[in-house]
Amino acid sequence: MSALLQNPRSELHALQPLGHGGEIESLLSYFCRLAVSHSVSTVTLSRSIAQRLQHDVARNFDWHQRQFAGIRESATTWSAALSALTSVQGLEKLTFLPWQDVISQNGLSIVSTGQFCPACFAEDLAKNEVPYFRLAWESAEVTVCSHHGHPLSKHCPNCKKENIRHAAAYVVPGWCTYCGEFLGKSTTSSPEKSVEPFARWKARQIGNLIAAQQNLNRPPKRDALIEGITHLITEMDYGEYAPFARRIGVGKSTVHHWLRCNGTPTLEASLKIAAQTGASLTQLLTGNLADWERPEPKRQLSLALPAPSPRLRATQRELDWVEIEEKLQEFLSLPTPISVLEAGRRLDIEARQLYLRANRTTRQLGERWKTYLRRRQEERVIVAWPYLEQACVDILAEGKSVTRREIVARVPAEILSPLSNLLQTLKDVQSHILLKNQPQSAES
Questions:
Q1: C-alpha angle with apex 197: 196 to 199, nearest 5 degrees?
Q2: How high is the pLDDT of residue 444?
Q3: Full 3-state SS string of 76-98
Q4: Fewer CB atoms near the end CB (10 Å): N or C, the chain?
Q5: 247: exposed, middle or buried (C-beta count within 10 Å: 0-12, 13-18, 19+)?
Q6: Which residues contact 37 (CB under 8 A, 6 or more apart)?
Q7: How far is CA 194 from CA 44, 151, 152, 162, 198, in A?
Q8: Is-contact 171 177, C-beta < 8 A?
Q9: Do 362 and 87 meet the contact criterion of CB atoms below 8 Å apart?
Q10: Residue-wise pLDDT tens digits, 112-165
Q11: DSSP string for residues in 197-220
């Protein structure tokens, strides 16, 4: 018991994510490899996890439509669920979730059919490594491999079919789900000559963004982003919204919405701002513009214009995970165990965040709670057993069948109500009665 609480076993294989920096694996790829490691289909695994989360699963449920790698609610839910079931922390970094406060909820387009770089798959196999889907490939803004300079492909080089990542129940990253051919076949064309410089620049920017998120101490905040955009408008266009909006190719009302109406730029808009101001995408989204300089050879009429006073907004809560870990340890020492949901309620934190950032202690709480529930149910069965046994004997003596109605009529409600599985307990009682009534074999 104590060994179980010190290191609870994970329900699923504790796979470690592949890649590093800007080449980190996507959560979708991790999910596919997890299904393969358990020798089950992706549909089976996804439905099992959804039911484990107590979600109602529709008949037409499709796992690949969940946008595992995005910034929406589904990415938080699935990364937390996989972290809880595999005991692997930090799976949210296989998504774009660290940037959810600085990219609008509808502003990060995730590809629906999947895209890949054949050269990356070929390189993985040449190094005797497991091929995997990169997180950068999940963004619709990325159309080029930043490492090889090749356009990303959506078609199998052998059967030429599209949507090759979701066409079968078993998905092995690097192989076509239609014909089973390896997707890393070399090509005789020279795709890098047809790649637009801006497309390569965007791929590098998003690759650097993904690399930066692996080392973030805390998620970037919208206030820092808006403060940075305000600074850029002041330096580039003297605080005027209209010329800045024309510079980046959006409407003036859009810029006003960002700065005055609690709006947040899309990833596409942030890339335009970075391209037109000379700041990197990472600098812009983190609000770290201390080293930024206006991209002009000469400065004219440089005025010390006062920055507009931003609207006061409620300060976002900063979570102290060291203190939270201490509180969780205190919960583990309580005489009466509590559930993970109750721990989250007392700390005013969602349970899935506890699984992501304090995985081991949270799972210890969960194991302790499940053991407590199991022990409490066993105690209730022990209390109810004599009543149930006597009721079954009387019912059988009357030549009747043991049914719930007969039991309810003979056993007090305060004895029956605590039992969570009355029918199974009745089966055990009847088996015990039959065993006692069996004639003893004569001894020679």
A1: 65
A2: 39
A3: HHHHHHHHHHHCCCCHHHHCCHH
A4: C
A5: middle
A6: 13, 15
A7: 41, 9, 12, 21, 12
A8: yes
A9: no
A10: 888 999 999 999 999 999 999 999 999 999 999 988 888 999 889 888 888 887
A11: HHHHHHHHHHHHHHHHHTT-SS--
Say which residue the tokens 């947040």 belong to.
Answer: 264
pLDDT of residue 297: 57
d(CA 261, CA 259): 6
Task: Identify the bridge partners of residue 134 per DSSP, sorted by sequence position.
Answer: 25
- Measured distance CA(288)–CA(227) in Å, rounded: 10
Secondary structure (3-state) at 7: coil
Contacts of 343 (CB under 8 A, 6+ apart): 328, 331, 351, 354, 362, 365
The pTM of the full predicted model, rounded to 2 decimals, is 0.75
Measured in degrees and rounded to the nearest 5, phi and psi for residue 224 equal: -70, -35
pLDDT over 60 (residue 249) = yes
In whole angstroms, give the CA distance from residue 92 to residue 357.
10
Neighbours of 98 (CB within 10 A): 20
Report the length, in residues, of the chain: 444
* φ, ψ dihedrals at 153, nearest 5°: -105, 150
The pLDDT, as a whole number, for residue 63 is 61
36-58 per-position pLDDT tens digit = 999 998 888 888 887 777 766 55
Q: How much is the pLDDT for 165?
A: 78
DSSP state of 336: S
Contact partners, residue 206, CB within 8 Å, separation at least 6? 22, 136, 139, 141, 142, 146, 281
Half-sphere exposure of 69 (CA within 13 A, CB side): 25
CA distances from 259 to 26, 57, 361 (A): 32, 40, 41
